[in-house]
Amino acid sequence: VKGSGPVLLVEDDLDIAEAILDVLMDEGYQVAHATNGLEALDLLRSEPKPALILLDLMMPLMDGPHFREVQLADPKLSEIPVVVVSADRMVEQKAHELGISEFVTKPLHPQELVSIVERTTFVERPSLIERVTTH
Amino acid sequence: MSARHDPGDAMTLAGPSLTSPSRDSMPSSGVMRLRADIAADDRVDFMENAPVGMHWLDADGTLLWANRADYAPLGYARDEYVGRSLREFHVDPRIVDELLTRVRAGDRVERLPATLRQRDGMPREVEITASARLHDDGRLDYVRCFVQEAQERAAQRITDDRDVLLREEQRARERLALLARASELLSQSFDYEKELAEVTALALPLLGDFGFLELEEGERILRFAHAHADDALAQRVQALAWTPLEHLEPERLAIGRATYKPRVEHNFLQQVTTTPEQLAALGELNIGSLICVPLMSQGQALGALTLCFSSSGRQHTEQDLALAAELARRAASAVVNARLFKEARDAIGVRDDFLSMAGHELRTPLTALQLQILSITKLVGQPDAAEKVAQRADKAGRNVLRLSALVNELLDISRISAGRLRLERTDMDLGDALRDAVQRHSEELTRAGCDVQLRIEGDLHGSWDRTRVEQIATNLLANAIKYGKGKPIEISAERKGEQVLLVVRDHGIGIPPEDQKRVFQRFERAVSARHFGGLGLGLWIARQLVDAHGGTIRVASEKDQGATFEVELPIAEPGEAQEVPA
Fold this sequence. Notes:
The complex is a heterodimer.
Chain A: E1 7-10, H1 14-26, E2 31-34, H2 37-46, E3 52-55, H3 64-73, E4 82-86, H4 91-97, E5 102-105, H5 110-121, H6 128-134
Helix pairs in contact in A: 2-3
Chain B: H1 10-14, H2 30-37, H3 40-48, E1 53-58, E2 63-66, H4 68-71, H5 78-81, H6 94-104, E3 109-117, E4 123-134, E5 140-149, H7 151-186, H8 192-202, E6 210-217, E7 220-227, H9 231-238, H10 244-247, H11 250-254, E8 259-261, H12 266-272, H13 276-284, E9 289-297, E10 300-309, H14 318-379, H15 386-417, E11 425-429, H16 430-440, H17 442-448, E12 452-457, E13 461-465, H18 466-483, E14 489-496, E15 499-505, H19 538-548, E16 552-557, E17 563-570
Parallel strand pairs in B: 12-14
Antiparallel strand pairs in B: 1-2, 1-5, 3-4, 4-5, 6-7, 6-10, 8-9, 9-10, 11-13, 14-15, 15-17, 16-17
């Protein structure tokens, strides 16, 4: 298992979630999945803290921006890095408005997804050298 | 001094005969020869139409003949005038005796002031110029009189007439300026509410002391009231619980007729009000004169412009009515233009929303597909990856199906919109179609946590287009899954006479009554697109397909109580093969 903790994917579309899960698990990441912001908050409060949150913007019940608002208001959660994953053409601007600098645009390339996850979880991941040498 | 001219044949033609004067003394001059050339009836006509009053009197003061300029201003016909004593027409009859005495003495009377009495009793100030014709023995034969309106009066009348003309011209200028300003205002933007309020204000004080324009906007009636230099009155009018659109002969307004009441009386107010409160409120406005003109568009009243005079005591004229009607026409045309513009803009907005939503919907399976394919590429060649590859290929296949369903949906929309949908009817069993549809959705149903209860009763054969009927079933089922996740779905079908009745019931979020009409419309769904996938056109397509089969579709639902869709399909084709209207 890579990284300092699991990656939490917050995505309402089951097909996309499944595909992202497959890609990241192929890379050796542990991934938890929530289909909306509310489910994500439940997971964050009951499970070990993830190293990274991959956040969709448009979701039912609690969307990405709303989730981000709650996350930032909670000191236990506010430090967790977030990457926006969205099909929105304004994703860069929207991510910026949420105080998030990392984003990937759908449709997404698996390598792009993997490298952004690596980059974002890099500092806390001690096994980087080991992983590089195995390839 | 005596006149020796011969009045000629005029006498015999146009009035009581005069004693014919002696012709012996007539000079034989050029003038006389010319006179003979002029037809007798033309001479009569000439005098009859002279612009100055002319009459002959006999020695008693009886009118022997008079021309139109003499009797007409008094309001009499010739028959009522000629043959009577001139004294009857003078306020002071003694003036006639004075006149006769003077001319008998050989005097010529120049511009003798006199007052005549008109038929309506009003005095007419005149000046009389008279001369006598005497017999050879010196007796008075007859008197010739010219009657002119008194000069001062005439001058005064000219001044008055000029003032009236100037005032009219001034008003005409104001009317034109008003119309020009109104047109300018109404063409400024498509914000017609603001413009209508301004136009109402503009019509004052020329057309009223206060006024209000009313406009039907959906179920509501908007009112824009204004009062000239009286904001408190404007507020009272704005709050008035009485509306011409409902109370003031609405059937007149509806067909484009104006109400024109230059004298508003109490019984008029009684007629147009339905409650004592309304009557009291209207009465307090002290309306003396009222105009109400409809704002018409294509034979329909969109609203009405009402203009009232109260404190000024003025009365509306027919010109005011014409101006108000023209103002209403221009206002109506501005409203129609603005509404058309807004409709077009909204339609474009709806289409843009749809396109952006469709783009998002297409991108979702594409995203999953791209990830799956690339991860398969990566797995290929790795040891023990065969099973994983097969799983991924399976998932990728599902996303291809999802994409192709979306594309088909888009194609159906364009086909139906263009009227190119044709049914290929065959004998088929609706029961089979329903079982197939449930079977095809079994995985999706499992994922959504929906149990399906399918109840099919009796013979459900009919002449339908198999693909399209399956599509109706699929769309209704997909809708039930989408909005009723985790809850059971009941599907039933049964024969009802010459129809089959198909019912699909979910227990999901339901559709509030106000949204139930919309769900069958194109580019509409009752809930935000953000939370539910699909193009939101499944129900619209289902309705088009049901319509094409000559059937009906309806929905019964309450918010949070699930939704029940009922489709009735005639088992036989009604009439000839048909196309679906767009």
